[in-house]
């Protein structure tokens, strides 16, 4: 199996258009494609930069010309959970018709979408990516080949993996970006490449605020790791 991670920019995707105009991000929790109606049903977690951005983003999403259904499950502060139905996009069609399949939850933010797509062999992967280039823009972030033993290992340890994913999904957009920036800039290196004040300056906030964001994010990630370790031991 070939697993390809790609940063996708679809021109006919309502989620991408919405994140291009508003400070919101979507993370797929569940998705199901109807081969008869050629429509994709999804349940997504929505993170807004603030409550106002969340409200404006949800309104824009409902009113998008390519949105068929959009209903709200729950909403709290700057987070929401929604159910949507959209028509098959060009990229989805190309991947399905070439024998590809989605292997992991996708995330949409800042006008692009992170996909994990699986293929049975390199030839199928190469042909599909060539077809995708005709009507879509994308960047290959990763490409890995998995042997059968690795796939069985992943299946055997699906619950610990899901615990880790849950921890990542629980992160707010601010917590996620703060943690990623801290890692990228070397905050967790020994010795540290940057200080807490350096990170605060980069985000334009106080060192107290950046410290709180880091601690909240770290707490969620560490708890998910602890759950995963417990599940691995059992």
Describe it for me?
This protein has nine helices and nine strands. The protein is α+β, with helices and mostly antiparallel strands. It has two domains: 150 residues, no CATH class; 77 residues, Orthogonal Bundle (Arc Repressor Mutant, subunit A), CATH 1.10.10. Strands 1, 2, 3, 4, 5, 6, 7, 8 and 9 form a nine-stranded antiparallel β-sheet that branches. Helix 1 packs antiparallel against helix 2, helix 3 packs antiparallel against helix 4 and helix 6 runs antiparallel to helix 9. The chain starts with a strand and ends with a helix.
Helix/strand order, N-terminal first: EHEEHEEHEEEHEHHHHH
Q: Percent of residues in beta strands?
A: 25-35%
Count of beta strands: 9
- Mean pLDDT metric: 88
Helix percent reads 40-55%
Structural class: alpha+beta
Q: Biggest sheet, open or closed, and with what strands and sense?
A: 9 strands, antiparallel
The number of helical segments is 9
């Amino acid at each position: 199996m070939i697993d390809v991670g790609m940063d996708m920019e679809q021109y006919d995707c309502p989620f991408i258009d919405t994140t291009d105009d508003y400070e919101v991000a979507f993370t797929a929790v569940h998705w199901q494609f109807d081969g008869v109606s050629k429509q994709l049903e999804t349940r997504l977690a929505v993170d807004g930069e603030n409550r106002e951005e969340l409200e404006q983003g949800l309104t824009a999403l409902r009113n998008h010309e390519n949105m068929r259904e959009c209903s709200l499950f729950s909403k709290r502060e700057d987070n929401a959970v929604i159910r949507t139905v959209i028509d098959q996009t060009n990229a989805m069609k190309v991947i399905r018709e070439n024998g590809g399949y989605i292997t992991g939850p996708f995330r949409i933010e800042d006008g692009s979408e992170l996909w994990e797509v699986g293929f049975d062999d390199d030839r199928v992967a190469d042909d599909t990516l060539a077809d995708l280039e005709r009507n879509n823009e994308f960047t290959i972030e990763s490409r890995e080949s998995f042997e059968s033993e690795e796939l069985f290992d992943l299946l055997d340890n699906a619950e610990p993996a899901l615990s880790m994913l849950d921890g990542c999904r629980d992160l707010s957009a601010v917590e996620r970006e703060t943690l990623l920036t801290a890692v990228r800039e070397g905050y967790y290196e020994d010795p540290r490449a940057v200080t807490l004040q350096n990170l605060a300056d980069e985000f334009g906030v106080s060192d107290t605020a950046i410290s709180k964001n880091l601690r909240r994010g770290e707490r969620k990630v560490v708890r998910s790791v602890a759950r995963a370790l417990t599940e691995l031991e059992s």
